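G., the chain you wanted modeled:
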Amino acid sequence: MPIHIEANTGDIAESVIFVGDPDRATFIAENYLENTVCYNRYRHMFGYTGTYKNKKISVQTAGMGSPSVSIVVEELNMLGVNNIIRMGTCGTIKAEKVNAGDTVILTAVHSSHDIYAREFPGASYSAAPDFLLTSALYQTAVAIHSAEHVHAGTGLCSETFYEDNYDLYKKFARYGTLVVEMEAYSLFALAAKYDMRAAVILTVSDMIFDKIRADKKTIQESVKRNTESVLELLNTFAG
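Predicted structure as tokens:
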């Protein structure tokens, strides 16, 4: 049974919104869901289940980085979750294509540290989201945002937040990588392992090479639009 998510089978919906910040989980639960129940408070990994337009949906705090995300995904699998959409922030390494406040939906993700090297000795694991869930998420986001502010492309999952230099990031950028974040690689890998659907939608909060961070209002407005996109999708998604 799960150790960090103190819940039972049935407490959590089949579809879960994954957020890093416990305060964001609480905000979504209090402002978007009805008949909400908090099923987990352990270690402030807040988890809530409620309804959105009569559809049962859960919001689960995942923390930051691959180790935290991996623990939560493993335990959600134990509890019968089928669909996970991570909603978070990222930094762009393609400033000529992606602006602060834009939305990026990941179509695949690279790893800066190859955290699954032990599982695939002599090979490199390619981590990708579920196509149907990701495609539907993109279409929903475009309808709520506008096409010019929604991008679909690859990301780099880094195991470090502060870097001494950006040589590695620049090389990935030359190969078309749009953004850097810290959770998608392990989410996609474990979802594939357990036959779960996973997708990632991100707000661009930072222009990494220029060392510019978007103002809080820009970030908050984008996160709000992304929240609405995810909820609308999960309300109708039948996968």
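The longest strand covers residues 197-207.

Shout if anything looks off.
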